[in-house]
Write a structure and sequence with these properties.
With about 325 residues, the chain is an alpha+beta fold. It has 10 helices and 9 strands. Among the domains are: about 90 residues, Hect, E3 ligase catalytic domain fold (Alpha-Beta Complex), CATH 3.90.1750.20; about 100 residues. It is elongated, with a radius of gyration of 29 Å. It binds zinc ion. It comes from Ruminococcoides intestinale.
Length: about 325
């Protein structure tokens, strides 16, 4: 059941309200045999227990294999989606708050002229035919609110027919996904990660040695002060304490460099670990894309694409999400 909740969140973009409705309408009950609420759904999605960790008072237990139900990467993706959806992130929203709307893009489409986020609205496409009959169809369009409502300066176009943009974006996505199907995982990319990791490790080892050496020097210099006070040293206590200060400064600098390298190394190892995940995610989407529903396509588009910028005359620029960008070229112009 938990698996299903994660899957529908990550793959189909179900929001917590819709998810609760879905579970309740399928007669599924919570542990306490009660109905699902949206906060029960959210609690489930945030529960680290499903990744194999017990949490009490904010402290996490070591990994416990028998508790593990949800892949760590899927969990992270769900957190990303939850975070994007929370109202605090309104401005930088990449994941559509809901995939129920009928346009492909929401929250991730911008006016290329003024940078304003575009919103989708519906309108009635109407004309009267020569024979006197009426043509009336409800359609969607994306509008730049700066231009359309005169809220700000914009020299662009106020509205764009949604299906024209959606169609172009979908076609491009399809091309890219088809390409990834025939592209083996980038060996060069993996090699680059590996060589960078090796380089960081080498630097880390050297810095650790230097830090140890400086610490030893400080201990020796301190001992020398004792001797100097007894008149058994060639150096005066002043000389020695200046030398200790200098050594301490250097030690401090090296320790900062070391923690910086450790941080970079951890990041790089993390990125390398996720490489497989994102690649296989990409492949799965490629395999499923043609047979997926509009909602699934929307969810794929939301996760693959960071933003779409549209300019006058339907000039479209697609910027891929950073995690997938590494497998494709950075931006696409249609
Ligand atoms: Zn605009």
């Amino acid at each position: 059941m938990v698996k299903k909740i994660f899957e529908m969140t990550v793959k189909e973009g179900y929001g917590s309200d819709r998810m609760a409705d879905y579970l309740n309408s399928h007669g599924i009950k919570t542990h306490n045999n009660s109905k699902f609420q949206c906060n029960t759904v959210n609690r489930n999605l945030k529960n680290r227990l499903y990744c194999g960790y017990l949490v009490s008072d904010g402290v996490e237990s070591p990994y416990i294999e028998r508790l593990h139900i949800i892949d760590e990467n899927i969990f992270d993706q769900a957190q990303f989606i939850l975070k994007q959806r929370s109202s605090k992130n309104e401005e930088k929203q990449q994941i559509a708050r809901t995939t129920k709307g009928s346009t492909l893009l929401s929250g991730n489409i911008y006016c290329a002229h003024c940078g304003q986020k575009m919103v989708s609205t519906s309108y009635i496409d109407r004309y009267d035919r020569a024979d006197g009959s009426q043509y009336r169809v409800r359609r969607q369009r994306y509008i730049c609110t700066n231009k359309a409502m005169k809220r700000g300066a914009c020299d662009g176009q106020s509205a764009y027919v949604a299906h024209r943009i959606d169609g172009a974006v979908l076609a491009t996505l399809r091309d890219y996904l088809a390409k990834i199907k025939s592209t083996p995982k980038d060996i060069a990319l993996e090699k680059r990660y590996k060589s960078e990791i090796a380089e960081y490790k080498r630097k880390q080892t050297n810095l650790e040695k230097e830090v140890e050496k400086l610490k030893r020097q400080i201990v020796e210099l301190s001992a020398e002060i004792g001797k100097s006070l007894l008149g058994e040293s060639r150096f005066t206590p002043d000389m020695l304490s200046t030398s200790i200060d200098n050594t301490n400064d250097l030690l401090h600098k090296k320790e900062i460099e070391l923690s910086d390298i450790k941080f970079k190394l951890a990041n790089q190892q993390n990125a390398m670990g996720k490489l497989d995940f994102y690649y296989s995610q990409f492949r799965t989407w490629a395999d499923e894309f043609d047979n997926s529903t509009m909602e699934q396509k929307k969810m794929i588009a939301c996760q693959l694409i960071r933003e779409v910028n549209v300019a006058r005359g339907y000039e479209i620029e697609i910027v891929f999400d950073i995690n997938y960008k590494q497998f494709v070229s950075e931006t696409v112009l249609i």
